[in-house]
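#struct-queue
[09:14] JT: dropping the first one here, sequence first, then the structure tokens:
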Amino acid sequence: MKKIIAAFIAGLLFSLGLSVSQMVNPAKVLAFLDLAGAWDPSLIFVMGGALGVTALGYPLVFKRAHPIFAERFQLPTKTDLDARLIGGSALFGVGWAMSGYCPGPAIAAVGIGGEKTWIFLLTMVVGMWAKRGFDKMTMSEPTHAT
């Protein structure tokens, strides 16, 4: 139960941060991504804050023998760049640039985002379902984290 409560609090804090920083506003994100047009650099501070927290937090966290609610840390071990990683990253970027949403902010904006948010989330779920089907057809291992 403690694990679920901690995950809920972390998700709530994350969604509040996304809302306060306006990352749930596709127009704000698209203006940040529009380097050749009416560029809005204000989201650089959001990224800078995230990098700062990460830079300070990782060394502190890894001084512990294990996470608070788990027996061991679960870190990615794969380091090679393959077509799936590059293709998935490109698809993610294209989707983000077209919609102004990535998954976290879209989920956080469910209550305020309107029809476009729901369309994005629906297409995201369809894409996840299609990827799973593709993995089964090609008999390749799924690439999700455990």
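[09:21] JT: and here's the second one, same format:
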Amino acid sequence: MPVPLSYSFRNLWTRRLTTALTLSGMALVVFVFAAIQMLAEGLERTLVSTGSDDNVVVLRKGSTSEIMSGVEREKAALLEAFPQIATGPDGRTLLAKEMVVLISLAKRGQSQPSNVTIRGIGPASLALRPQVRLVEGRLPSPGSGEIMAGNNIARRFSGIGLNESLRFATREWRIVGIFDAGTSGFSSEIWGDAEQLMQAFRRIVFSSVLFKLRDRSDFPSVSSAVGGDPRLTLEAKTETRFYEEQSEMMTKFLRILGFSLTIIFSIGAIIGAMITMHSAVANRTTEIGTLRALGFRRRGILAAFLAESLLLGFFGGVAGLTLASFLQFFSISTVNFQSFAEVAFRFTLGPEILFGSMAFSLFMGLLGGLVPAVRASRMRITDALRAS
């Protein structure tokens, strides 16, 4: 005969103080676990959403980022002749030759500078990135010293405001526009005319070439043509895959850090649950004996005490996830290990994190209550009743 679940609920309510303390410990562990997973998920989604499956990024072979890449003008001109490249409404090829460099700027309210990405764009760059929209001011004029900044950069760094001037590469640049790129990483960049920026930074090669395919199915042939041409020494990747690779190192580090911290903290939470359940067994020895005398079997007693510990894990998980969910209202910035540039992103709570956190919390409850539950189920009726 099974013990009613209400029995487990009632006993947790009777021991409100110890239940609350145990729940707090479990909630803290789940909060840390979920928060770091949300951090990694937010970074990954931000960078992956930066790319499009229709776009192809061409870099120097072996380059892991645009900062490390170099594409000579002659090679970029050869790429323009590829028939798989789409054309715009005006008949122009949707291909952009871009340059990427890093500069150091001071954050608002801080003296410590941070790296910011400067992207030199071409006439087709905006058409290739429809998620980018101007929210203040106007677009920079081609061939001028005008630039526009992503809204994340404008919010976080001093001197990055509409009609303000920014000095780098030995000259003044006027900010004429602020743009929003949604959740993509472009919101953490500053854009200007590629030719002007190359002159200012004394660069003779582009960092990358970006173009749009007529059809996504053309990518294998384009990749083979680029990689197999000995004149180019370049490689092609879909823009989505390129930005996935940009996030891999950082997200892997964050997830390893999260698991390490969670394991350390979870040991304390499991011990707390075990102490709570051992105390429950010790204080209810006579009650256990009475249940056995009334006909409840050993497995029923085992299930009742396991149910208590699992309920502790469940409510601890719910409390931890509730706290973690509020992190979605905050955005933070960090340096991407791959590009060495600052990128801003939000904590992101997805279904996998929800289910993973709850499963982990229930697992902590199970481990914490298993030994006390087995001890309770193995009590002999006479010994339990004699203890009264």
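[09:30] RK: nice, looked through the second one.
[09:31] RK: Residues 5-48+246-386 form one domain.
[09:31] JT: good to know. The radius of gyration is 30 Å.
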